[in-house]
Every structure is written in structure tokens, then in C-alpha cells.
Amino acid sequence: MSEAAVAVPPVPRRVLPIVDHLAGIVAIVIAWQVYVTATDAPAYMLPAPGAVGSALTDLAISGALWRDLGFTFGNVVFGLVLGALAGFALGFVLAKSPTLERWLDGPILLLQTAPKIALAPLFVIWFGFGTTSKIVLIVSLVLFPVLVATIVGLRGVPQNALELARILKLTTWQRLMRVELPMALPEIFIGLRIGAVQAVVGAILGEWMSGKLGLGHLMTFASATYKTPLLFAAVLLTVALGIAVHVSLEAAERRLLRWKQ
């Protein structure tokens, strides 16, 4: 008798991005361990994955991991939401008014090209050492990519769709919500994904410059005390946070753009 072949069920489509990210992380960890073992690298320069794992475990047991990770996560989400709303609102206004866009193009470009590492201390001086300066920094990083993506998306709406909206006598709000926004969502989500990465960078930079909480502060503490495994642990937590935000946005994009598939 011939044995029946066992069919392997396909991986659900929504799980594929998570599997891809995890596979990449596992490959990096394996290569990292092989390099440390082969070169006998000193722990103060490149600790082994096991030492970093021990540092993460100690952080979790002490409660510092959840406190610092939660603080950074809250700042990232709040700053990302504010920056996205501000970028979309300003992008909508500029997309509808080319004249206003020409007037504001210079100031917006000036603010975007200014190095954020130089603006961060100014935000601390203007808004203090608290959370406000960090949120303002994150918003300033998120706003521009969402702004540009919104302008490109709204101006890329097909003319026949706009003509149909006029024939149906849709109000400005109805035209935006039923025609323009759905068709501009692919471009807007591109801006959001870029802005999400910038939000994580801005949160870490803000905590690095000032503050006593967050992953950025944890990195500063580990660097000052030469605790390299702890520094690597903080970096890995930051990477995990960035991946989590990115995957969440991808899931939201797939759900909202299901009509395009």
C-alpha cells in the first residue's frame, strides 16, 4: 500500500509578514552567535546573544523593561497619531490650494531639511524636559512624509471619479470620505509607514537628549556605565517596537484596502 501524502496547510496570508520578520531576526541571531564564537569577541565589544537575553530577563524581572518600553511606546503612538492628523490636514489644504502650496513650500522644506539632532535641544529649551518636547519632536518627524503622501494621493484621484462625485452632487465632506480618501489611502499609508519609523527614531532621540524614562534613557544609562549587554538589549527592544508598529500599519492597510484586491 502506498502512503498518502500529507498535505501541509499554507501559511495564512496575514501571518506571512510576521513569519518573514521572525525568520530574518532568527537568521541574524544565528550569524551573531557564530561570529562571537568564531572570533572570541570580548563581551564589552560584542556580547553573545545569551548575555543580551540575560540582560532582557533581568530588565523584565525588575519591571524596568515594561516601564521604559511602555513609556516609549506611548510617546510613539501619541506622536504618530498627532503627526499623521496634522500631516493629513495640512496636505489636504495644500492639495486643494496650489497657490498656498507655493507660498508654504519654502518654509516647510526649510523645517524638513533642518537636522533634527540640532532641533532636539531647541525643543527641550522651548518645551522643557518633560514629555511635551519629545512629542513635538516626533510630530515634526512624522508630519512631512504624511503631508507629501497626502498631497500625492489626493492629486492622483482619477478625474472621472471626481466628475462622478459632481454628478451625484456630493458635498465636500462626502466627496472626501467616499471618493478621494479611499483612493488616496495607498499613498497615505506609504507616508504613514515612513512616519512610523521616524516616530520611533524621534522618541529614542528625545529620550536620549533628556528624560529619566524610556528606551533612549536606558541606552544612555547602559552606555555611560559600560553595560554593553544592556545596551544591546535596549537596541533590540527598539527594533522590536519599530517592527511591531510597522506590522500593525501593514495589517491596517490590508484591512482598509481590501476593496482593491
Descriptive report:
This protein is 80% helix and 0% strand. It is built from 10 helices and no strands. Helix 5 packs across helix 8. The mean pLDDT is 82.
Short description:
Helices cover 80% and strands 0% of the residues. The chain is mostly helical and 261 residues long.
What is the fold's blueprint, element by element?
Elements: H1 16-39, H2 49-62, H3 64-96, H4 98-113, H5 116-127, H6 131-155, H7 159-167, H8 172-209, H9 215-224, H10 228-256
Q: What is the percentage of strand-forming residues?
A: under 5%
Count of β-strands: 0
CATH class: Mainly Alpha
Largest sheet: none
Termini gap? 44 Å
User: In CATH, what is the homologous superfamily?
Assistant: MetI-like
Task: Please state the CA-atom Rg, rounded to the nearest Å.
Answer: 23 Å
- Named CATH topology: MetI-like fold
User: What string, H for helix and E for strand, traces the elements in order?
Assistant: HHHHHHHHHH
- Morphology: globular
Spans of at least 5 consecutive residues with low confidence? none
What is the average of the pLDDT values?
A: 82
Distinctive features:
261 residues, mainly alpha, MetI-like fold, 10 helices, globular
